[in-house]
Design a protein that fits this description.
With about 100 residues, this protein is an alpha+beta fold. It has helices at about 15-30, 55-65, 65-70, 90-95; strands at about 1-10, 35-40, 45-50, 75-80. Strands 2-3-1-4 form a 4-stranded antiparallel beta sheet.
């Protein structure tokens, strides 16, 4: 399992130009079972993604395909997490990792 953060750059003013393509990219991530959660970082802006799967190289390629990353609007950081203990409500996460 991975936590991906997308930090906005000085190019963030261009985000609206690529928002539709970015949202389509997010939808593909959910449709293909790669994303478990996507949201905004508050208050600084940017985004966060909780991604399932164990193939880091595939995730790196998926993140590189994000129009925001391709256009230099956001810089990604990927952190791998090995869930060891969860609240019962999140027990599915240990199976997803």
């Amino acid at each position: 399992m991975y936590i991906v953060t997308l930090s906005l750059t000085a190019q963030k003013s261009r985000a609206s130009e690529f928002m539709a393509a970015h949202n389509a990219w997010i939808a593909r991530g959910f449709d293909e079972g790669a994303f478990l959660l996507v949201g905004s970082l508050k208050p600084q802006g940017g985004g966060a993604i909780l991604a399932a799967g164990s193939d880091r190289a595939a995730l790196e390629q998926r993140i590189a395909d994000d129009p925001f990353v391709q256009e230099g609007i956001a810089i990604p950081e990927i952190q791998e997490v090995a869930p060891a203990r969860t609240d019962e409500r999140l027990s599915f996460l240990t199976a997803a990792s």
